[in-house]
Amino acid sequence: MSLKFSEKDDTVIFTVRIVPRASKTEIVGEIDGVLKIRLSAPPVDGAANAELVKFLAKTFDVSKSAVAIITGKTAKNKQMRIENLSSSKFLKIINSTDG
Hints:
By secondary structure, the chain is an alpha+beta fold. It has helices at residues 47-60, 87-97; strands at 5-8, 11-19, 26-31, 34-38, 67-71, 77-83.
C-alpha cells in the first residue's frame, strides 16, 4: 500500500475519498495514495462528515475531538487530521483493515 500521509508530534494528516450511501461503513483500501472509505450515511446536512469522524475515531481509538476534516468538507476527497496517533499505529491499523 502506498498511502500518502504525514506525521508530526503524534498527529497524522492524510487524504480520504469517501463513497456515501454505502451498505456499510468500512475502509475499502487505497487508490492513488488516498484512503478510500465507504460510509453508510448520505451526503446530506453533514451526515457523511459526522459518520466519517465517528468511524475514524473508533477505528484509530482516539476521541472524536481528535479527528478533524481540514479541507474538503463538501467534496468526496477530504484531508483529515487525527491527533494522538503515531504513524506506526496508523499504518498498523490501515494495513490490518485493508480490503
